[in-house]
Amino acid sequence: MSLSPEQVAEQRAIGNDRENAPVMAPGYTMESVTETIAGIPLSKNIRMGWAVGFLIAFGGMNLLLLSIVWLLYRGVGIWGINSPVGWGFAIINFVWWVGIGHAGTLISAILLLLRQQWRMSINRFAEAMTIFAVSCAGLFPLLHTGRPWMAYYLFPYPSTSGMWPQFRSPLVWDVFAVSTYATVSIVFWYVGLVPDLGTMRDRAKNKLVKFLTGMLALGWRGSARHWHRYEMASLLLAGLATPLVVSVHTVVSYDFAVGLIPGWHVTLFPPYFVAGAIFSGFAMVITLAIPIRWYFGLEGLVTLRHMENMAKVLLATGMCVAYGYSMEVFFGWYSASRYEEYLVFNNRMLGPYGWSYWMLILCNVISVQVLWFRWVRTNMFALFILSIIINVGMWLERFVIVITSLHADYLPSSWGMYYPTFWDIAMFIGTIGFFLTSMFLFVRAVPMISIFELRTLLPQARVKEVEK
Amino acid sequence: MTAHGHKPVGPPIHGMAARFEDASALTAAARAARLEGYARMDAYSPFPIHEMDEALGIRRSILPFLVLAAGIAGCVGGFGMQWWMSVVDYPLNIAGKPLVSWPQWVPVAFETTVLLSALTAAFGMFALNGFPMPYHPMFNVKGFDRVTTDAFFLCIEADDPQFDVTQTAKFLQGLGALEVSEVVH
pLDDT tens digits, residue range B85-130? Predict the structure, then answer.
């Protein structure tokens, strides 16, 4: 039985209960939870709002295409990078996008190991977000090499030149870390999708959809023996993805921390980067979840309980990040090195890019404190605005780390300013377009919530032991 | 003898399938069938039922050992690759550092470990499950397309020594099955 409009309205209302929202609104059946989620990709209708949003995002993606073509034609000179600031927007955006990806893995892997049931409603689209964010991230270092068609040099392959990569370099570690992360994320996401693709195969009316989902479902038939191995594989993948996600941003932080530049050479970087990654990733999940749950009427499945829990994670990781900022200042002062002191006080706080440092503190430390109040955590409008502020703040953090540290290092003779060009900004907006285009296609193409996991949350899924 | 003149290979049907009301009924039926002495059977459900492992007597999968082996291979392979490339095949003196600077090989070796074990976890599971297998006799069962939504099936397979078309059907009926049908190939 499908749900009547009144029941749907009631479930949405329960999901939006600001006082005591459950993980899942009551009254769902196996059929209605399946229909609610699988019905979105299987529906024939293209909704106006989706189409308009998709077209805007697609326009952004074309801007990316244009910027890449122009970049390949003219070279990296079209960007604002110079000497001394050789790492401009490309590296800032790379770190920003990789960081955003981390929330998806955290939700699907770490919360699975911790047996957090509220993970089940948000893991699928958070994982999709991870894949798209990592795709955006991967583009930047690739294009920053200047000759992306030579990028295979970074991989150890037997070449006629007889050379091998330099394994002491964090940049080579980065290639391994990010490519492993992308591969494992895609595999984990696909494994999670298989039973739901089986559901789509069995419910599809359209022949082509039935064929495609049937092939992708690999012949899934819900066998108990398959479920046994399936759950084992999920647990193993979660156990493997957990250290992996920590390692990825640790390696990204090594790109900086292993260098000798004041402001980069800090032992605090790995944990501080990982916390920042989770912070920005959760902000992005919230940015996406709020409009999606509202537009598709999924408030009964992605309830305010989920939103509030995510807001709490934001607050906790925000405090970790704030600790990182304060320790950076402390290290600079305590080092008694004039270069470190100069960097922290004269350059970062009071230098020509001082505005970005204070904006970052405002976005990532001060504004986050409103999350101590339940009223903010359960107010979707306020939470949405705050998540955008945090996304901006985390971008500024990478701006501060990359630009202020590089523009003025040991020798004043090699100081210089960095200004982004039109193409820097165009490519950044372009990746946002690519990311959103992928998200729009994703919510329309596959079930955006893990249906089989939600079925296990239903009271009727529990096995009642009969008297012997 | 079939129309083509071959002898039919194996039992003419895959087994006897019974549909049950819910997870509890399915688990109870699987337990009862095991008690009755049936060994070759499988349960089909829209979500994993943890009680089913014990009810059907499913032995622990070897998957974790495969993943462990892959992880060890990835770790040894990762270190070995870096050692061979930077010590044997292309030794480079960088700032007088020792050629075997193994602490700096840890990140790459870690990534190869995770990569190989994760791929083994996923593809090993697919392989042990016999995937991809777009066709299976169970798909011929009436109403089996609901197994990915809200239907629960138990199938006693025809190659079970105790299997008998009439007896097994009767037995499944007695367990409170909603519907019992032969599974044709």
Answer: 999 999 988 888 899 999 999 999 999 999 999 999 999 999 999 9
Within-domain flag for B6: no
Q: Which fold has domain A5-461?
A: Formate dehydrogenase/DMSO reductase fold (1.20.1630)
- By Cβ distance, the residue of B49, B61, B101 closest to A229 is B61
Look at A202 and B147 and tell me if their CB atoms are within 8 Å: yes
Q: Answer yes or no: do B61 and A232 touch at CB < 8 A.
A: yes
Interchain proximity B118–A165, CB inside 8 Å: no
Every domain of chain A and the residues it spans: 5-461
pLDDT at A272: 92
Interface test with B, best of A180, A194, A468 (most B CBs within 10 A): A180
Q: Is residue B21 part of a domain?
A: yes
pLDDT digits over A359-408, tens only?
999 999 999 999 999 999 999 999 999 999 999 999 999 999 999 989 98
| Residue B2 covered by a domain | no
Reduced 3-state DSSP string for chain A: CCCCHHHHHHHHHHHCCCCCCCCCCCCCCHHHHHHHHHHHHHCCCCCHHHHHHHHHHHHHHHHHHHHHHHHHHHCHHHCCCCCCCCCCHHHHHHHHHHHHHHHHHHHHHHHHHCCCHHHHHCHHHHHHHHHHHHHHHHHHHHHHCCCHHHHHHHCCCCCCCCCCCCCCCHHHHHHHHHHHHHHHHHHHHHHHHHHHHHHHHHHCCCHHHHHHHHHHCCCCCCEHHHHHHHHHHHHHHHHHHHHHHHHHHHHHHHHHHCCCCCCCCCCCHHHHHHHHHHHHHHHHHHHHHHHHHHHCCCCCCCCHHHHHHHHHHHHHHHHHHHHHHHHHHHHHHHCCCHHHHHHHHHHHHCCCCHHHHHHHHHHHHHHHHHHHCHHHHCCHHHHHHHHHHHHHHHHHHHHHHHHHHHHCCCCHHHCCCCCCCHHHHHHHHHHHHHHHHHHHHHHHHCCCCCHHHHHHHCHHHCCCCCCC
B68 and B122: one domain? yes
Mutate to test the interface with A, among B34, B72, B114, B123 (most CBs of A within 10 A): B114
Domains: count for chain B: 2
What ipTM was estimated for this complex? Answer: 0.92
Domain boundaries, position B123: 63-128
Answer whether residue B119 is part of any domain.
yes
